[in-house]
């Protein structure tokens, strides 16, 4: 079994618990595969894994206390139902069903009453209980396990929008009945569904309209998936398509390229006109304020990313290279502050954007970078020789016999791009970057243009 992207966004402990209670051996296999998929997406593991099958005695005790508190009742058939009327108007925070009579043949007192314990049918798994052999209801296991770990109150409870009712509604009712408290969870965060673009249905195994995480990672990275999610507010549905993934990739590449350029500037490898330092300090302060406000307003990550991209845009406008170095003062401090802030924001979002030596993942990355460094240095020397101009006033411009050297330099730069090695010419010097991803777009041959 493979976990889909939609599963990642909406999977609940309720669903996982049902699978584990059916076949422990098979469920363990699925669980391990799920963990591997989460690690491949760089999802931080939880502090503890708790299985429903290992907590049935606690569930039975939880139900028994709800009965003793006057909020549930057992039937002669061996079922236990939560008594909705016992909590009055408190039921229905997420749009519960209206008060109505139970269907003929039902043993419920009210149609809204839900099962805490169900008598097992022939061939179903069962556990012993004061009400006979049975199994937990679909909602009680989550309240029991959460209470075992966190006690009588949660700060934040999350899940897919489809779990708001009845699952979360019933969790609230039974948890507050058990703990005898006025409010069990302070905040509920309900995430939107993942859709294939053009489809009104969410990604679902039953509809066979999903993509597995393993297949996804053949084309895109975990960082790109995170950026894809960040570009839409968590409560909204997300349309998955190659176009939306390429947009996420483009955003990451823009940030990566900017950081690479700032590093070149701070090392003195990038010559540009005097920087409007005060203007950039203002834009940095503005970005910090905008990101904070966006995240404080119901985790609006789309607005937060937009603020970061605006900062990148203003920074890029100040880093336009010039052919000759000027005598003006340089401003590395403001760019260092901008890069540091962008790193911090990306770290909060779990994105490891920068292609560091460690991130390349290859045991030969150090030697590869050494080869690229020597190659870029040699190319820079050849290019500088080819760009030398006639000192004689009678023959202005480049030496014609050296133009093929410029052509060879441009060809090398363009041939390395599909291999994930990016060479950037900074006036008389050049910088390089190993992106780890092929670059199909050819770089404009500026050296050859300047020679014509």
Structure overview:
- This protein is α/β, with parallel strands linked by helices and 452 residues long.
- The chain folds into three domains: 5-207, 3-Layer(aba) Sandwich (Rossmann fold), CATH 3.40.50; 222-349, Isoleucyl-tRNA Synthetase, Domain 1 (Orthogonal Bundle); 369-387 and 399-434, no CATH class.
- Helix 8 crosses helix 9 (242-266) and helix 9 packs across helix 11.
- The strands form four sheets. The protein has a four-stranded antiparallel β-sheet, covered by helices on one side.
- A hairpin with a 2-residue loop joins strand 9 (421-426) and strand 10.
- The protein starts with a helix and ends with a helix.
- The model is unreliable at 7-22, 355-364, 441-445 and 448-452 (pLDDT under 50).
- The chain has helices at 5-10, 13-22, 24-40, 56-68, 140-150, 164-179, 213-216, 222-230, 242-266, 277-296, 301-317, 332-348, 365-387, 403-416, 446-451; strands spanning 72-74, 80-82, 115-119, 134-136, 154-160, 185-191, 194-196, 238-240, 421-426, 429-434.
Number of helices: 15
Second rung of CATH, namely the architecture of the largest domain: 3-Layer(aba) Sandwich
- Protein structure class: alpha/beta
Instruction: Tell me the number of structural domains.
Output: 3
- The span between the termini is 61 Å
Spatial strand sequence of the major β-sheet: 1-2-3-4
Query: Radius of gyration from the CA trace?
Result: 30 Å
Rounded mean pLDDT score? 85
Count all strands and give the number: 10
Reading the helices and strands in chain order gives HHHHEEEEHEHEEHHEHHHHHHEEH
CATH topology descriptor of the largest domain? Rossmann fold
Shape: elongated
Q: What ranges have pLDDT less than 50 throughout 5 or more consecutive residues?
A: 7-22, 355-364, 441-445, 448-452
Q: Level of helix content?
A: 40-55%
Strand content: 5-15%
């Amino acid at each position: 079994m493979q976990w889909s992207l939609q599963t990642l966004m909406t999977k609940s402990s309720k669903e996982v618990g049902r699978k584990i209670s059916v076949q422990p051996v098979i469920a363990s296999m699925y669980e391990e595969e799920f963990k591997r998929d989460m690690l491949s997406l760089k999802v931080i593991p939880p502090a503890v894994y708790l299985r429903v099958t290992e907590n049935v005695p606690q569930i039975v005790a939880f139900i028994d206390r709800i009965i003793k508190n006057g909020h549930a009742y057992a039937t002669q058939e061996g079922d236990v139902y939560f008594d909705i009327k016992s909590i009055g108007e408190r039921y229905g925070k997420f749009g519960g069903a209206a008060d109505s009579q139970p269907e003929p043949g039902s043993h419920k007192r009210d149609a809204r009453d839900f099962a805490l314990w169900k008598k097992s049918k022939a061939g179903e798994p069962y556990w012993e209980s004061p009400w006979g052999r049975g199994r937990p209801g679909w909602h009680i296991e989550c309240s029991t396990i959460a209470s075992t770990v966190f006690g009588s109150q949660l700060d934040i409870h999350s899940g897919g929008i489809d779990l708001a009712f009845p699952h979360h509604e019933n969790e609230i009712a039974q948890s507050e009945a058990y703990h005898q408290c006025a409010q069990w969870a302070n905040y509920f965060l309900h995430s939107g569904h993942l859709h294939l673009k053009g489809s009104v249905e969410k990604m679902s195994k039953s509809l066979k309209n999903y993509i597995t995480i393993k297949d996804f990672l053949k084309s895109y990275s975990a960082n790109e998936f995170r950026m894809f999610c960040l570009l839409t507010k968590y409560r909204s549905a997300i349309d998955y398509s190659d176009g939306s993934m390429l947009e996420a990739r483009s955003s990451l590449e823009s940030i990566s390229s900017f950081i690479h350029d700032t590093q070149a500037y701070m090392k003195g490898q990038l010559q540009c006109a005097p920087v409007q330092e005060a203007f950039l300090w203002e834009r940095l302060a503005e970005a910090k304020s905008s990101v904070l406000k966006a995240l404080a307003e119901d985790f609006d990550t789309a607005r937060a990313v937009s603020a970061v991209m605006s900062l990148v845009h203003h920074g890029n406008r100040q880093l336009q290279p010039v052919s000759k170095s000027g005598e003006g003062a340089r401003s590395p401090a403001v760019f260092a502050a901008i890069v540091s802030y962008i790193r911090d924001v990306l770290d909060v979002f779990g994105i490891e954007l920068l292609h560091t030596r460690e991130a390349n993942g290859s045991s030969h990355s150090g030697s590869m970078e050494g080869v690229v460094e020597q190659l870029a240095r040699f190319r820079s020397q050849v290019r500088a020789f080819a760009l030398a101009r006639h000192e004689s006033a009678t023959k202005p411009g480049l030496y014609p016999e050296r133009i093929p050297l410029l052509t060879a330099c441009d060809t090398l730069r363009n041939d390395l791009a599909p291999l994930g090695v990016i060479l950037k010419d900074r006036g008389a010097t050049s910088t390089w970057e190993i992106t780890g991803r092929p670059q199909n777009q050819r770089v404009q041959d500026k050296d050859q243009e300047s020679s014509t």
